[in-house]
Write a structure and sequence with these properties.
alpha/beta; 33% helix
C-alpha cells in the first residue's frame, strides 16, 4: 500500500503543478490509501518540528533559511500547509517512489493539533515551541486541553525540546518530558515591559500546584519573568537570552553577538531567538543568523508593505487577541494621519467564534490620527460594532465586499494599515498586488 500511496500522491502533485495549483490534496489521497504512511518513510536526517500559537510560520521559515544558507538541502513546508495532509504532501514530494528521503534536514511547521500525529509517525529529533495563547476555541479547543495533548505526545520524546522560557504555558512541558534534552530561549526585560498586564492573559496559575504566578515583569500578554508563590516553578535560566534590546529598531544581543530582527518588534525578536539557539546547537557559524534575518522574506501578510499612488499600505494577518494586540501596538506608534481596514471572517479556518475581538485591544489604533476605519468581511458589522464600543469618534464605514472596501480605502490615499483574518488574507493580498503601482 505504501508504494501505491506514494505513486498516486506524486501523480496528483505532478498534475497540480502542471495546472499551477498546489495544496495538500496529494497528501490527503496518500493518507486515505495508507493511514500510517509517514511511519513507513525512510528519513535518516534530523527532523525539526516548529509549533505554537503565534510565530511558527516566520520561525520555521527562518530555520529553513539558516540551513539552506549553510549549503544544506532543506525540505520544508514553507507555504504553511501545516496540517498532516500538507506535511505528507511536502515529504512525499521530496522522497523516492520507495519512500527514501532525499535531503540533509527537514524543517516542518506543524499546527498544534497535529503535533501528536507527527510525533507518533515521524522520527522527530527537535521540537521548537514558540508560545501558547488562546486561539480559535471552536477549532483548537481550550488551551489547557491542547497543551495536555501535546504533553502526552511528548512523554517518550528523546530528542531536543527548544522552549520559550518566558511563557509558563510552554515551560510546563518540560515537566512531562523526562527523556528529552530541554533547552530554553528567553529575553531580558525591555523598555516596553511593565509590572502589570492589561491584555488577556492565560499564564495566571502554576501548572504544578495551581497557586497564583507572580510576575516580576510582563513583556507582552503573559510572556515575561514569573515564579510561583508556593513551589519552585519559575522562569528558567538560559544561555540563549536576548539582552540590550531596542524594540523599535529590532536590535538585540545574544552570546556576545549583535543581531537585528527582520521586523522591529519584540514579537519578532522571540522568533529570532529560536533560530539563534538552533544555530548554536547545530554548531553553525554565530554570524549566520544575522544573514538570515537580513535576507529572509517575511511570510505573506506579516507586516507586508504595498504601495498605491505613492502611499504606503501595510498588511497583517491576525487570528487571536495576542497577535492582534502586537499588530495594534505597531499601529499605535504611528502618530501620522492614517486609515485602518479590518477584514473579519468566520470560516472554519478563521474560527467561527469571533468573540475574541473583544479581548483584543483595538482601542490602541483609535487615536485622533486615525482618520477613518473600513470594516469588511463576513462579520464586518460585528467588527464595526466592536469599534463603536471602543469609543471611536471618527468616520466608520462598512463594506462587506473586500474589493469594495479596498476601493474605499484607495479613494482617499493616505498611510494605511490593513488587518485580515486567515481566509480573508489571500483575497485581500491578491487584490492589493493586482492594483499595486
Amino acid at each position: 500500500m505504501k508504494l501505491i500511496a506514494i505513486l498516486i500522491a506524486k501523480c496528483a502533485s505532478f498534475i497540480l503543478t502542471k495546472i499551477q495549483r498546489g495544496g495538500s490534496f496529494p497528501g490527503q489521497l496518500a493518507l486515505r490509501i495508507c493511514p500510517d504512511l509517514l511511519s513507513k518513510l525512510t528519513i535518516p536526517c534530523d527532523i525539526i518540528v516548529v509549533s505554537g500559537t503565534n510565530g511558527k510560520t516566520s520561525t520555521s521559515n527562518m530555520i529553513a533559511d539558516l540551513f539552506q544558507f549553510h549549503q544544506q538541502r532543506v525540505i520544508s513546508n514553507r507555504k504553511g500547509d501545516n496540517l498532516k495532509e500538507g506535511i505528507t504532501t511536502t515529504l512525499l514530494n521530496a522522497c523516492s517512489i520507495t519512500g527514501r528521503f532525499r535531503g540533509d534536514i527537514v524543517v516542518l511547521e506543524v499546527d498544534e493539533l497535529n503535533v501528536p500525529y507527527i510525533i507518533k509517525h515521524l522520527p522527530v529529533t527537535y521540537v521548537v515551541i514558540t508560545n501558547f495563547f488562546r486561539d480559535q476555541l471552536d477549532r483548537s479547543q481550550e488551551m489547557e486541553q491542547l497543551i495536555r495533548k501535546i504533553e502526552t505526545a511528548l512523554v517518550s520524546f528523546q530528542g531536543v525540546l527548544l522552549l520559550n522560557g518566558d511563557d509558563p504555558n510552554v515551560v510546563r512541558i518540560a515537566d512531562q518530558t523526562p527523556q528529552a534534552k530541554v533547552v530554553y530561549f528567553r529575553a531580558e526585560r525591555c523598555s516596553t515591559a511593565s509590572e502589570q498586564s492589561e491584555e488577556a492573559s492565560e499564564g495566571k496559575f502554576c501548572p504544578r500546584c495551581d497557586a497564583p504566578l507572580v510576575y516580576q515583569y510582563y513583556q507582552y500578554s503573559h510572556i515575561g519573568s514569573f515564579h510561583c508563590c508556593k513551589c519552585h516553578f519559575q522562569s528558567p535560566q538560559s544561555a540563549y537570552c536576548a539582552s540590550d534590546i531596542v524594540v523599535d529598531q529590532g536590535r538585540f544581543q545574544v552570546l556576545c553577538q549583535q543581531y537585528q530582527a527582520p521586523v522591529p518588534s519584540l514579537y519578532s525578536i522571540y522568533n529570532c531567538m529560536a533560530v539563534i539557539a538552533l544555530c548554536d546547537l547545530f554548531h553553525l557559524p554565530a554570524t549566520l543568523p544575522q544573514t538570515v534575518f537580513a535576507q529572509t522574506k517575511q511570510p505573506a501578510g506579516r507586516n507586508e508593505t504595498f504601495y498605491w499612488q505613492n502611499q504606503c499600505y501595510t498588511l497583517n494577518l491576525v487570528k487571536n487577541p495576542t497577535g492582534a494586540n502586537e499588530v495594534l501596538k505597531t499601529i499605535e506608534l504611528d502618530s501620522s494621519p492614517k486609515a485602518l481596514m479590518i477584514v473579519l471572517n468566520d470560516h472554519a479556518q478563521d474560527g467561527t467564534d469571533v468573540s475574541w475581538i473583544y479581548d483584543a485591544q483595538f482601542e490602541r489604533a483609535l487615536a485622533l490620527s486615525t482618520q477613518f476605519i473600513v470594516c469588511s468581511g463576513r462579520r464586518a458589522y460585528d467588527m464595526a460594532l466592536r469599534i463603536k464600543y471602543a469609543g471611536y469618534q471618527g468616520e466608520l464605514l462598512v463594506q462587506e465586499s473586500i474589493q469594495a472596501a479596498l476601493d474605499t480605502l484607495y479613494a482617499r490615499p493616505m498611510r494605511s494599515y490593513l488587518i485580515a483574518t486567515y481566509t480573508a488574507l489571500a483575497p485581500l493580498r491578491n487584490a492589493m498586488r493586482k492594483e499595486e503601482h
